[in-house]
Amino acid sequence: MARIGLLGGTFNPPHVGHLVCAQEAWFRLGLDRVLLLPVHTPPHKEIADEPRVEHRVALCELAVAGDERLGVTRAEADVSGPSYTVDTLRRLNDECTGDQLTFIVGGDMASSLPTWREPEAVVALAELAVAERLGHGREAILEQLRGIPGAAARVRFFDMPRIDVSSTLIRARVAAGEPVRYLVPEAVADYIARERLYGAPEGAVA
Question: What confidence tens digit (pLDDT) does each residue in 66-117 have?
Fold first, then answer.
């Protein structure tokens, strides 16, 4: 039985903060592997500066290339329309019989779990790994989850370094012609410049 972590998101684009979160979850929770799970269409928000899902999957694959601890799954990217976590976990449980799934989220997302589709089913299908962040402490999160049967026993917390990098910041720097190398993996920076994603000017410096 493999212990598989799932780190979902738009990854628009993936950056060092995503990779540090994946690494810390792998290390601190004793996971066998962590898979980035790029969403096709988020159910609750539009994707800013959408470069279409194939670009975002390619960026994720470049971001984790060469690190056997990490990988990418197309479990949501290949499903058109809004993706709900509970549906994704059901598909993955059917495909990965015997594996133990851990869904990795930040404290803000964990606090919003009661508003997700079928939250009881989500915690039944996968453990919830919560990266602790300022303003979303353990007790506050557990209080938010109190109304979901069995949720408290399925939550695991882990610490990660604070990384003040966001996809919004990366997109803004690219559009302004500013370098993003070291904020994203080198291969990701090169791809963004080559494909002129996010309004990158011609001849942009990666």
Answer: 999 999 999 999 988 888 999 999 999 988 778 999 999 998 889 899 999 9
Tokens linked to 41? 């269409």
- Phi/psi at 109 (5° precision): -70, -40
Taking alpha carbons only, the member of 153, 148, 199 closest to residue 178 is 199
Distance CA 22, CA 175 (A): 27
In a domain, 33, yes or no: yes
The total of structural domains in the chain comes to: 1
- Which token pair is 34? 């962590």
149 domain residue, yes or no: yes
Q: How far is CA 174 from CA 41, 58, 163, 185, in A?
A: 23, 18, 19, 14
Q: Compute φ and ψ for 86, nearest 5 degrees.
A: -60, -40
Closest among 62, 24, 13 to 162, alpha carbons compared: 24
What is the Cα–Cα distance from 93 to 128, expressed in whole angstroms?
Answer: 15
Closest by CA to 129, choosing from 47, 35, 1, 61, is: 35
pLDDT digit string, tens, across residues 119-173: 999 999 999 999 976 556 788 889 889 999 988 899 999 988 889 999 999 999 9
Helix (H, G, I), strand (E, B) or coil at 111: helix
Q: Within 10 A of 21 (CB to CB), how many other CB atoms are there?
A: 23
In a domain, residue 44? The reply is: yes
